[in-house]
Design brief:
By secondary structure, this protein is mainly beta. It binds zinc ion (ZN) (2 copies). The site of one zinc ion has 7 residues, from loops. The site of one zinc ion (ZN) has 7 residues, from loops.
Length: 87
């Protein structure tokens, strides 16, 4: 878990894990043993394909977890939304 990173899905900047809104205005984030290179998401193992594991809907956010197709590491995306679901 030490290598876990959090990134804004829009500007691809590294962010803090508890962030709810990036300075670029985006509210979608990705967490995991991952990195971005040339705007592409990589698993630490070098793989770029992930399969959907689980999807959870909360009142304030949608959470989807993915598994790396190669090493099985879990990657999680979180999409925050305003109350009422109106962006
Ligand atoms: Zn951003
Ligand atoms: Zn992997």
């Amino acid at each position: 878990m030490d290598n876990q990173k959090s990134y804004c899905l829009k500007c691809k900047k590294e962010v803090t894990p508890d962030i709810k809104k990036c300075e670029c205005g985006n509210k979608s984030f990705v967490f995991g043993d991952i990195y971005f290179k040339d705007e592409k998401l990589f698993c630490v193992c070098g793989n770029t394909t992930f399969k959907t594991n689980m999807h959870l809907d909360y009142s304030d956010k949608a959470v989807t977890s993915y598994e790396c197709n190669k090493c099985g590491k879990v990657v999680v995306t979180e999409h925050y939304r305003k109350f009422g679901g109106i962006e």
